[in-house]
Amino acid sequence: MFVISKRNSGDYKFVFTSKRGKTIFTSIACKHKTDCELIIAAIRDSLEQFAFTKKSTPSGKYFFRLSKGGLVLATSRKYSTQRMLEKGIDEILTFVPKAETLDFSEDENIFSEDETTVASP
Description:
single chain; 121 residues; alpha+beta; PH-domain like; seven-stranded mixed beta sheet; 3 helices; 26% helix; globular; DUF1508 domain-containing protein; YegP-like_sf
C-alpha cells in the first residue's frame, strides 16, 4: 500500500510498503499532498513508463531509484543481496496496480478521547 505522511519540515512524502508493512520505497519530498497523490496515481496507472535504476552502496548494499523522464521520484530501502532487490521490484510490479492509499498526513487524533485516556484503578 501507499502511505502519505508529512515530514517534520512540512513537506509531504509517501512510502510504498509490502503486505507485511515493510517499506519498499520512499518518495521525494513534495510541497503539496496533491503532488504525492498525482505521483501515486501515475505510478499506479502507468508503471511501465517508469524506470528502475539499480545501484549499490560502497558497503555492498543494493537499492533502486524509481524515475520518469530522468526525474528521480523515489528511492528504495537498502537490500542485502541483488536477489532481494529483484524481489522488491517484483513486489512493486505485482501489487502497485491494486494498492490502496492511506493518508496519515493530517495532524488529527485518530482515537476518541475515551480511548486515549487511561482509567485510574
